[in-house]
Structures are given as structure tokens and as C-alpha cells.
Amino acid sequence: MLFKSLLTFILAFPFISPAFPQSSLKFSDRLSCQLEAPKSSAQLGKLICRGLNPHWEYTLLLSQGKKHLRFFYKNLNPKLDYLLFAVPYYWHGKINYALKGENNSTLWEGSFYIKPFKGGVSKIEIKKNPNNDGKKNNLRKEISIQYSLIRRTLRKITFQRFYENRAIFPLEGKFRISSPFGVKRYVNGRFVGFHKGVDIAAPYGTPVRASLSGKIVLARKLILTGNTVIIDHGEGLMTLYAHLSKIFVKKGEFVRQGQIIGKVGSTGRSTGPHLHFGVYLRDIAVDPLQFFKFELKP
User: Fold this and answer.
1) pTM, two decimal places
2) Which residues does the chain have with pLDDT short of 50?
3) How far separated are the first and last CA of the chain, in Å rounded?
């Protein structure tokens, strides 16, 4: 009798259902995305989406032939959110992308084309100290250790956003771009790599400001970059400030956008007072001058 009464009640009110979690179909059916692709390599792009599940983990897969990149996201806004990604400077042409949800299901996919990055050439001469010849091996070993430290730091991902809608320029007052992003660098005639930031010449002691809010994940003196600060802005987005004369922050400290973190200097391998400013997403270097024009979140 009780069972019959319960069955009659359920049939009379079909809109009542057990409290199961919402299915993937419900969210994927409501999902709508629009791609804002970078114009060239070494730039940021974003997938603008509505209808994301805030409880899911998402992966954006970029692929070009045998090359693959994965960007991970959590705690997204279901109404409207930006999924940031970056294209390395050595990628160009057609790139396929796919947004993956739970169980690696493809929710949105497509492709875009980007132009190859075109950078110039930078040649600098630094005086050698003959007294250091016997210390070269130890110096190279220490430089290698410090390089690995920077790479490990830039690859860390904090699944929390500290950053604002747009970044601000780290210097105020008198300055000039002395070496642009992406140039091939030669030191004393020897190729040393791709310039992963922008050099901004400014008077010695000019205050350096945090481009976005975030947590200090590195603040110390290094051999090549001198007094160096790296700020984690969340979701793999980081900025790097090098060759400072002074550092005013410590590792673990939280800083606000515009806060003074140090002063322009010429420490490390440097030919004069300037700020080396770098922008990275998941350890992929992107053009800082494009970064300042980019809307990071709704």
C-alpha cells in the first residue's frame, strides 16, 4: 500500500528527481565558446566561454603535427570566463585546439593560423675578467643550477587568480626600450639564445612596480640576471623583473598591482641601468608589449 501511494505521488509530480550531480551533457549542451587567437607566435590568446562547470577541471590542448601543449584550468566562472593560453615563438602556421572536460571528452574544438614571430639581432660586448678563468667551470655549474631554478619556478601552477583585468607598465617617468622581445642575442660574438623579455633603460634607482597582483615566488640575486624577482599571478601567469639595484620584497609575500618591489639597477650581466621585464604563461615566454594590451579576464 505504501509503495503504491509513493508511485502515485511520483507520477503526479514528474518534475521531482533524485539529487544526482548534473550530467556532463547538460553542461556541454549549454557551452558556448569563442576563440581570440594570437596574431603571431610568442603571444597570448584566450578561449572565451559561457556555460563552464565550476566543479570540473578543463584542459585546452594545442597541437601542431607531433607538437602538443596542454593548459589546465579549475574553479571557472560558469557565466563567462577566459581560458588563457600561449603560443611558443617557434610555432607558426595552422594550430588545432580542443577543450577537454571530464573523462577527456572533447567539448569544443577548432583551428587557427598564426604568423611566425620575427625578431631582430642584439649584440653586446662585456668585458672579461682574466682572474675568473680558473673559476669558469664552477661558474657554469652555478649558472646551470640557477637556470633550472628559474625554469622550475615558472612551471609551477597556482589554480587561483590574483591578477587584475589588465597589466600595468612596471616603470613610470623617463625610460626607453633598449632591447625588444624576441631578438637573437650575441654576447661577445657568441650566440646565447632568444631574448625572452624586453629591456627597458631607465635612470638608476627608478622604482619598479608590480605589473599585476600576486605572490612573490623568487626574490634573490642570480649570476646572470642579478637581483631578480618573479611574481606568480595565478594559473601559471608570471612576471619576471631582473637586474634590480634593490629588492623590497621577500619570497612568500603577497603584493598588489602597482606596489614598488625594487629599483632599476645594473646587477648581473648588464651593460647599464635597465629593467629586464619578462612575461610567462606556463613557462612560455610571450611579448610583454602585447601583454599590456591584453584583457586577461572579464
Assistant:
1) 0.85
2) 1-27
3) 56
